[in-house]
Amino acid sequence: MRSIKVNKLCKFICDATSIDEGYVHPETLLEKVKIKGRGGTILQPGIDMIESAKDLGARLPFIPRGEVFRMK
């Protein structure tokens, strides 16, 4: 299986600490995914990390092919 609409995505892990796994190809998610973490789930640090990411910020790092939804 291959994604025809998404070339790569940002992989963030939200656990007791937030981990930025960087950009990955969607096909890598079809296989086993190793999750790093310390137990527990706290989402806010992950959301803060996404909002402050310099390559994400207020714009997408690619030209979208479909509709873009924004949240405030």
What does this protein structure show overall?
The chain is an alpha+beta fold. It has a domain at 9-52. The protein has one helix and two strands, in the order E-E-H. The protein has one helix spanning 43-52, and strands spanning 9-14, 18-24. Strands 1-2 form a two-stranded antiparallel sheet. A hairpin with a 3-residue loop joins strand 1 and strand 2. The chain is globular and about 35 Å long. The relative contact order is 0.22. The model has no long low-confidence stretch (mean pLDDT 76).
Estimated share of beta-strand residues: 15-25%
Poorly predicted sequence stretches spanning 5 or more consecutive residues: none
Largest sheet: 2 strands, antiparallel
Helices and strands, in N-to-C order? EEH
Strand order of the largest sheet: 1-2
Q: How would you summarize the topology of this molecule?
A:
Blueprint: E1 9-14, E2 18-24, H1 43-52
Antiparallel strand pairs: 1-2
Write a concise synopsis of the structure shown.
The protein has one helix and two strands, in the order ββα. With 72 residues, it is α+β, with helices and mostly antiparallel strands. A two-stranded antiparallel sheet has the order 1-2.
Summary keywords:
72 residues
